[in-house]
Amino acid sequence: MSRNPLVYFILWILLQVLVKINCQMTPFKPSVYYRHTATLIDNKLYILGGWDLNDIPLKEFFYLDVSVPFNTQELSWQDLSNINMVPPHGYAASVKGGPNNDTLFLYGGISTDQTMSLVYTFDSQSIAWSIPKIAGVNTIRKWSLTGIISNDGRMYLWSGKANTGFVNEMLILDTINLNWSKGSIINAPTPRMNYGAILLPDNKIIYIGGGNDDTTTFNPNTLNISKGTALTLNEIYIYDMINDNWDIKVTSGNIPSNRASFSVVLSM
User: Which residues contact 59 (CB under 8 A, 6 or more apart)?
Assistant: First the structure.
């Protein structure tokens, strides 16, 4: 074999190209299992953070393009983890907001990284993360809550858990003007986490269920409560974003069992 250094150099370049091509052809398989956030922006479902099967927090960030047909058994995830500046975390809240309604806002969550900021933003057009400077009231880190975004770009963050315990407050983040404020908690329900929440067309938010028992665990196979308790579904709590007030309604019919950590979808 020739000992010409140029030959070895060319072979090394070819090897690097083959490795890169092979990596690009290998489909990305997420490790995240639960406690991640999911945010839909311009037909792309962005998944961030969360825990794996061993309850280890992850730094994964990826998306699924839902504008094209896809097979649920072989999802074509696009990995963006290499640009993710958010530390491994879980139990955070996220919404789509900003001046052009194309920015992912991430709030709170739990992380072992003490440098994790309270809020991060991801610009889906420039594909870049940043830490925004937000004015207004002093805020604390909360987790296990749901963010609801209004039609005028305000992110509503009710209750949740903090280092001091369950927090009964309505925290509001203006994602356009970047300032904090607080809403009324008069007649608000008891503080809780892992509740269901959904925005109605009349600018009202419905809250239902959830938990206020730190000992609650669920059977991973059946999702039934194996220890502790969850809150009842015989009442729903309605927050009026326009008039900044709360109302309570009693449910009827065949009321489901108590539950927490569930999904809520509005059917029109």
Answer: 49, 81, 84, 86, 87, 88
